[in-house]
Batch of 2 targets.
Target 1
Amino acid sequence: MIRGTRQRQAILDVVHHSADPLTPQEICTLAKATLPRIGIATVYRFLRSMLEEGKLVVVEIPGEAPRYELAEKDHHHHFFCKKCGRVFDVPGCLSEVNRLAPKNFRVDSHEITLFGYCESCLQDK
């Protein structure tokens, strides 16, 4: 558990104000804006604690560092930019995802990640 409430609050603020999932390093960098001496080990302790409490979820992108976002978000998917490496939330879901499963199978959950180039990276081409 994180001892310092200022550290915990700085990390919470970063996670709550982010529209998209963040890596531990991104969280640490953003938290340093309000608490310059915060370290990556503190961020990892916080993330572990929040995962155990069910307040955060891990966003896995193959070949990339795990990212974290609030568990309270509505079901959604993600877009990974192959140039800048950022991950963006994609709101909503395919309404017919169950039809993608083989006949007589039941889908309990799913994750969909789109891969391509974000608007900023497309303008840089």
Note: The radius of gyration is 17 Å.
Target 2
Amino acid sequence: MEISSNKQRESSKHIPAFDGLRGLAVLSVLLFHLLWTNSVSSSSLVQAAETLKGTFWLGVDLFFVLSGFLITGILVDTVERPDYFKNFYGRRTLRIFPLYYGTLCLYLLICLVLSLRPLTQIGLLFLFIQNTPLWLSVPHSALTSATFGHFWSLAVEEQFYLVWPLVIFLLRRRKRILVACVVMGLLSAGCRIALSNAGASSETLYHLSVCRADSLLPGGWLALTIRGPHRDRVLKLAPLFFWFGLLVCIAICLSGGNFDYIQNSAVERYGFSFAAVMFVGLLAMALRPAGITSRVLRVGWLRFLGKYSFGIYVFHQMVALLINLSGVTAMLAHIPSKAAYHLSFLALTTAITIPLAMLSFHFYEMPFLKLKRMFDYGRPSEVESGSSG
């Protein structure tokens, strides 16, 4: 590996601005899932709000780019170390499995206690294949979507973790991995376009890992590039990446009337890729400690959300469902203003979700995270603990 020790040490340290990026991403997801608007209103202001809200699914794509950056950095920095696979998968397992499988087991326990029939798709969730046509081809109820529908992104990341460490282990050299990163990203985008032309559903193109790899691999490209001789040049050009990706996304939105991957076919064909370019620029700007982007992302409340983003992501849909089933929404319905009603629902769901995520992190997940010392890389690797998984 032609990576200098100084660059390796610098890229391995914890980056506070990335906590803010996670906070921004999970805030976007919360708004997308929980903030409802009246899409049939004739008001131009409401229509504009609906269009804006329809872009908040990009929070998941920001998680993907960030995860690709962090995971690739960890892998290339440790590929020559003993127990490369053991340490990586051991640490990933301790980070993801306790909360993920604990949530699924809690759901099964509730079904048993209340004599409810579990979802027929629960086995796919245990296997991390809920983003495949096996899941999408089964009729889903509102209960399924509200409870575990958002878990598809966790399946994409887990499948990425199965393939990418092996690719890096086999190629080893940074330049080879960089070429593979670019080629695989282009193939992913090409595959998605081809499937779109063949009539594949928008949901398939949005959820299938082979179609979303071009959201993960650009983050990997950035991680590899900053470990080479062109780091300073890339960081200097970061705003150009960001604005170029953003302007293309805006053009796609204007041409189709929205940035909804279901309604605007250009989004599923090209929008995912250019959104990843935009987020690569944002990540690169966050790597410049003195820059305004980094300073904004280090704001306390954003970093707070980022710290608990995994639990917030896992719990928020289920909390919203329980609020609906409890009858609280019927009480909120008496609020005369629809805007106030929707904002109240968002505030209530968030007010329950965040403390729940905090309790889970400190009293349930943390004992597992402390076991990471059993899979030590031989150097501090705080940056890994903040990956989106």
Note: The chain has 20 helices and no strands.
